[in-house]
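Problem statement: downstream parser choked on a complex file, so we are re-checking the raw output for the magnesium ion run. The parser issue turned out to be on our end (a line-ending mismatch), but while we're here, posting the original submission so the record is complete.
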Amino acid sequence: MPPGDRDPQEPPASVPRIRVADEAGVAAAVAALEAGELVGLPTETVYGLAARALDPAVVARIFAAKGRPADNPLIVHVSDLAALEPLVTTVTPLARELAATYWPGPLTLVLTASPHVPAITRGRLSTVAVRMPDHPVALTVLERLGQPLAAPSANRSSRPSPTRPEHVLAELGHRVALVLDGGPCVIGVESTVVDARGDRPIVLREGAVTREQLQVGSDTGRGETDRSPGTRYRHYAPRCRIEIVAEGELPVAAARQLAGERVGVLARRSSVTELGRDAVVVGAFDDEVELARALYGAFVDAERAHVDVLLVESVPEQGVGRAVMDRLRRAAE
Ligand code: TXA
Ligand code: MG
């Protein structure tokens, strides 16, 4: 295509798809949501693909846009505790305590659903997952809209979650009405999902609120069957191989790759300096918190750089490191 020519597949330049989250941007998002459309919404964890949670026809559009299996339920987002009550049969004392401590924030509570929650939203389970995101843009949109939003991560099913607005467009394109720009996500991995129906939290998906914070051990004594339905599926996978490398073993691992392979690297700053010139460094970090923030963006950058294999230096399974390693292992499967 000659330079300057527009790709006919692309939307006209006059249609702003990523919108600044100012008054006009928020108003446009609320109007789109009211009309039953899908909106890319920033949260502190990852960008969500938001739509009205209590309208089954609208929720069906989320499943279609993501190519998501119907038995994988969505998280319902609220902007205040009062909005939780009509969604569930009982707010247990444990849920009340966890919400008081972690909301707004990256903790999703699974409780018994009330009949108000459409079956499609909860993947036909008897429970519903609810969280209050800690992002001013998400909270403002929820307040203005005045009703809860279902918002899975704004990626196509099995792909890495988006942590920047342009990732949402690259993944979903015309399937969203617009994406509100909330900047890069501060946390970078998804919320922790806990079953809060009993006396103690049961972790169903590792996430940004850590087991140390929740004071639950790594083994709840429960099996795979208790995990969130979504954790059964292949996940977070970029279009290149992912290989997890033990701390400090990066030069050896890089040397081991096949001749002619393009190698990408996501590693500690101290390890990156020891590499040869050939590796494509798509990200560097000092600890697990920084790796969480960089992870999905590095996957996207590795794809864009056409690497064959991305070597990721592992972090200890502590704090958010547990969620990071969980995502990495799934991506490397
Ligand atoms: O941080 C997050 O949680 C992001 C942002 C956008 O809020 N959302 C997100 O949604 O990660 P999604 O759909 O990508 O992941 C939701 C996870 C899935 O693993 C799903 O199976 C689980 O939550 N889940 C939803 N409802 C559930 C329920 N009733 N019981 C058990 N797990 C549930
Ligand atoms: Mg997801």
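For whoever reads this later: The two ends are 38 Å apart (CA to CA).
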